[in-house]
Design a protein that fits this description.
The protein is an alpha/beta fold. It folds into two domains: 200 residues, Alpha-beta prism (UDP-n-acetylglucosamine1-carboxyvinyl-transferase, Chain), CATH 3.65.10.10; 210 residues, UDP-n-acetylglucosamine1-carboxyvinyl-transferase, Chain. It has a four-stranded mixed beta sheet, with helices on one face. It has a four-stranded mixed beta sheet with strand order 7-9-11-10.
């Protein structure tokens, strides 16, 4: 799909933000491991969520979509599934959350994936699971688990590669009577995503003790359904509209909780650092544009915000330095290189560093044609960038938004006062 965005676009209106894909993943998996059915209320459906639903169905759960809800009927954990293939498509969350669970409750299970997922690392997670007796055919997809995890134990894992490893191990541990511990061997990055996992598990009745570098799942626990749960509004998706506001749009967002554990809610603090201002109205939240200036951004806990914050940096006067973002090389695309690519194609001055980006803000960019690199965040950031371009922005491969935010361009069109 190719999308053409005209210059001088004006975005204005109200928008009920879609549910957090990250939160829905966790809710579906906890519900599938629970004691009774769970109704999960949500808005917005994406390919990654459908992937997780299909995988838990392979594990024996049932799922029904009806009237803005997913009802999950749990799998029978006492019935060992054998010889399964779980197709995780392009969803890293699905694969990394379900690998430990499948290793605990299945025999001879294989996880496969597509797109760039087979290139992304799994070795730290596999090495950790080997502490519990698991044997793997490979440390990259496709991965077959030929010998299963036999016990809850202490599982050591680095904290600076992917928080999804830690979440996957935590989700597995209540399946063992003795519980277990996840011990983090390096400083934890993207801690907010682990906090999300703990928060969801707590809602499903699991008690976890957190210390400086470990998470302990207490013994003799079982997932207990809350019967009905509402997924959180998604700060990662909201960030595109809030950054658009900082560039002069007037989009009011409802459905966001500033006290939730999502790390990407920090977008507000960063935009204020740029020189914008948070406004809360009776209809919701928006950002008021101001005189933007270059800033320094530590992205170690908010890597997904880097592409769209880089757009704001292009509109700001002076240099912006983004660091702590080396893990972006392992996403749906190498997001350091693909962020530089789409911005320079539009006329920006961007340099890739060892762990981030340096951007010399110009206020306005030229416009032009960009490619989506099969990366939803690159596509949506390119669309936001059209707000500061003098000429058309043409986005090739725009269908990548279906991974996380299927209705992004229909929302963009609805908010476009010139369409």
């Amino acid at each position: 799909m190719t999308v053409t965005l005209d210059p001088k676009t004006v975005l204005s209106g109200t928008l009920d933000i879609i549910s957090s894909k990250s939160d829905i993943h966790r809710c579906i998996i906890c519900a599938a491991l629970s004691d009774k059915p769970t109704k999960i209320r949500f808005t917005g459906l994406s390919k990654d969520i459908i992937t997780t639903v299909e995988c838990v169905k392979m594990l024996g759960a049932k799922a029904e979509f009806l009237d803005g809800c997913i009802t999950v009927i749990p799998c029978d954990k006492s019935m060992i599934m054998q010889g399964l293939t779980l197709d995780c498509a392009e969803s890293g969350s699905t694969a990394r959350f379900l690998l430990p669970i499948a290793a605990a409750i299945c025999k001879n299970v294989t996880l496969v994936g597509s797109g760039r997922l087979p290139e992304r690392p799994f070795s730290p997670l596999c090495e950790s699971l080997k502490m519990g007796g698991a044997v793997f055919s490979s440390d990259k997809l496709p991965i077959t688990v030929s010998t299963n995890v036999k016990r809850g134990d202490v599982y050591e894992i680095p904290g600076n590669i992917s928080s999804q490893y830690i979440s996957g191990l935590l989700l597995m541990l209540p399946l063992f009577p003795e519980g277990g511990e996840v011990r983090i061997t390096t400083p934890l990055e993207s801690a907010g995503y682990v906090d999300m996992t703990v928060d969801t598990m707590t809602k499903f009745g699991i008690k976890i003790e957190k210390s400086e570098n470990s998470y302990k799942v207490l013994p003799n626990q079982n997932y207990t359904s809350p019967h009905e749960i509402r997924s959180q509004g998604d700060w990662s998706s909201a960030a595109f509209w809030l950054c658009a506001d900082a560039l002069g749009a007037n989009v009011v967002l409802s459905g966001l909780d500033e006290s939730c554990p999502q790390g990407d809610r920090k977008v507000i603090e960063i935009l204020e650092k740029f020189g914008a201002k948070k406004i809360v109205t009776e209809d919701g939240l928006l950002i008021e544009a101001g005189r933007l200036h270059g800033v320094e951004i530590d992205a170690s806990n908010i890597p997904d915000l880097v592409p769209v914050l880089s757009v704001v940096a292009c509109a700001a006067r002076g240099k912006t330095r983004i660091y702590g973002a080396k893990r972006l090389r392992l996403k749906e695309s190498d997001r350091l290189e693909t962020t530089r690519d789409f911005l320079t194609r539009l006329g920006a001055d961007v340099t890739v560093t060892d762990d981030g980006l340096e951007i010399e803000g110009k206020g306005k960019l030229d416009g032009g044609t960009v490619v989506g690199h099969n990366d939803h965040r690159i596509v949506m950031s390119s669309a936001v960038c059209s707000l500061i371009c003098k000429n058309q922005v043409i986005i090739e491969g725009a269908q990548a938004v279906e991974k996380s935010y299927t209705t992004f361009f229909s929302d963009f069109d609805r908010l476009n006062m010139r369409s």
